[in-house]
Amino acid sequence: MADFERFPFTEKQDVFGITDAVPQLPLILIRGNTSVKITGILDTGASVNVLPYSIGKQLGAIWEEQMTSVMLAGNLAPVEAKGLVISARIGSFSPVRLVFAWSKSNDLPLLLGRMNFFLEFNVCFFGSQKVFEISPKV
Fold this sequence. Notes:
Layout: E1 5-8, E2 10-13, E3 19-22, E4 24-31, E5 34-42, E6 49-51, H1 53-58, E7 69-70, E8 81-89, E9 96-103, E10 111-112, H2 117-120, E11 121-126, E12 131-136
Parallel strand pairs: 5-10, 6-9
Antiparallel strand pairs: 1-12, 2-3, 4-5, 4-8, 7-8, 8-9, 11-12
């Protein structure tokens, strides 16, 4: 297994048509026998990982069975969310358990935030090269 893996930033246009480079990470989310390939945005400003509603449903989660409410902040504050623990596989690394605020909205991307993505992985951004590296915590 590699010590780290390197990923390119993704060129995306914002709502104003301005192109920007975004640190997006391909990963596989696993819950039980179901898996979903998805891309998440590494967001050092996000307090928590955030999961869109449709992805939780694809993984077989049932909204009414989740008992832990999560209060989101910032522009996501109006969105209802519940806690959901999911395994994630990134590159050749061993799967890790990630805790998500499963939002009752599909109008947001999957966000990988400080709790707990950045507690499980070390990340180094090379903005001028438009790449980033991740490695599992030791």
